[in-house]
Amino acid sequence: MDIEFSVTKKNKHFWIYGICLFIIAYFSFHTLCGNRNIYRLYSLRHEIAQAQEISKKLQKEKHRLQKLVNHLSDKSLDTDLLDERARVVLNMVADDEFVIFTDSL
After folding, report:
1. d(Cα 46, Cα 53) in Å, to the nearest integer?
2. CA neighbours within 13 Å on the CB side: how many for 4?
3. What percent of the chain clears pLDDT 90, i.e. is strictly above it?
């Protein structure tokens, strides 16, 4: 009787070890080869880092453009300077003005 009892006890341990080994193999396989594996995690982290760099560059560009737009607002725009530049660029004057041309321009 002792022999049969020891065989069934070994048999129970065999099944427990087998199930544990299967569970470890299952999770190991899916960690390395599944849809959400470890390699995908690293590639997603790399993509996130690249997207954050692009976002920082675009934010800087946005701020630069915003400064340029702010310079065009009525509060920061010098109307006399704008009038002078428009007359020079468009080569136009009002009816009651005299224009003296010089070679310095």
Report:
1. 11
2. 1
3. 32
pLDDT one-digit tens code per residue, 81-100: 777 778 778 877 777 877 77
The token pair that represents 105 in the structure block:
């321009």
Identify whether the C-beta of residue 99 lies closer than 8 Å to the C-beta of residue 105: no
Tokens of 93: 């004057």
Cα separation values, 17 from 20, 24, 71, 81, Å: 5, 10, 75, 88
* pTM of the complete model: 0.48
Residue matched to tokens 């007359």: 87
Identify the helix (H) or strand (E) that includes residue 86: helix 79-90
Q: Which amino acid is located at 89 in the chain? A: V
